[in-house]
Amino acid sequence: MSGGGPEADEPLPSVPEEPRHPSGPAAGEPPDDSAELSAGDVVPGGFGWARVAGRVVPLAATGVALYLLMPQLLAVFSAFPRLRAFQPLWYPAMVLLEAASFACVWQLQRIAISGLSWPLSAISQLVSNSISRIVPGGIAVGGAVQFRMLNRGGCDPAAAGFALTATSMVTTGVVFGLPLVVLPVIAFGQPAPTGLTAIATTGGLAFALLVVVGVVLARSDATVRLLARAVAWLARLTRRAVPADLPAVLVVRRRDVIRSLGRRWPAAVLTAAGKWGLDYLALLAALAGAGQHPRVSLVLLAYVAANVLAMIPITPGGLGFVEAGLIGTLALAGVPAAAAAVSTLAYRLVSFWLPLAAGAPAWVAYRVRYR
């Protein structure tokens, strides 16, 4: 990839080596058994208490959430026998729509990161997507993995980090903005159930908030420097080295990303809308396969609610939250409970489990191409 490296007149600062812990032995010296180790610093096996807690607490939260959501999950998976009545011709349509939805994500990343190739964009996103759906709270972990893959593939690290943040904000803003399309229909046309109306109103408010945050990050250097200092502080807590002039580097790379998106912002918004629109059509296809044809405006509100629930970083990929939320909101849209369970199961098989399985082949392809 030719266009991902830093510019010659803006070299990235070298990352200093991690300092040796003061309690550790010097190079070549045997460990000092008499040295006292604080229980707050380490536990047997060399793991810090903070690191152990960072793994145990999310797993415990995930276990509790899955236990509470188990009835909804069982209701969905118990619909497997009823999939025999699902019209099979809708499966290829759903797969094609989901593939096109993922392609929109890859193109959006290429718009934000100058010189990013199609293979690296697709491979890194598929791996990141799979990890984020396996690990509890995996959105952050998946983003970090994709960041490293892009860096190793030749992308400038600071620019890639800002680009991933920008694309995430664009796609999140679009999904929160989707209810605004339905509000006129609800206000001047057929009314919607109270629960779906609340979803539309909340989505509109969240969209406005994201717009404000995006404008502040795009125009305020002070905010970016404050964010960089917060990142550096978190890195020091985890004993990771960061460049001394990280704030200045992020300001420069933020300007590069904005310059890249600024020239093609209509294409960026269009591809982000395509990502959600095609995925929404896959849900409509799942409903059609189950013999259901509810009002598309109400299904759109149910779809937005399900995707907002998927952002809750407790269970991997919103597992349980999405199923429970989608069945409930589809019921508000007039879909019978049994058909809602079948449609949700078919939709999640194609939109959640199938892309999850694509992560391993994508990782193998990455290792072969960029080793």
What's the helix and strand layout?
Elements: H1 49-77, H2 90-112, H3 118-132, H4 138-152, H5 157-188, H6 194-219, H7 221-237, H8 246-263, H9 265-289, H10 296-310, H11 321-332, H12 337-357, H13 359-370
Q: How large a portion of the residues is in β-strands, by DSSP E?
A: under 5%
Bulk shape: globular
String of helices and strands: HHHHHHHHHHHHH
Annotation field: number of helices: 13
What's the end-to-end separation, in Å? Answer: 14 Å
Please give a structural write-up.
- By secondary structure, the protein is mainly α.
- It is built from 13 helices and no strands.
- The protein has helices at 49-77, 90-112, 118-132, 138-152, 157-188, 194-219, 221-237, 246-263, 265-289, 296-310, 321-332, 337-357, 359-370.
- Helix 5 crosses helix 9.
- It is globular.
- Residues 1-47 have low confidence and may be disordered.
Annotation keywords:
mainly alpha, 371 residues, 13 helices, 70% helix, disordered N terminus
Quick structural overview:
By secondary structure, the chain is mainly α. It has 13 helices and no strands.
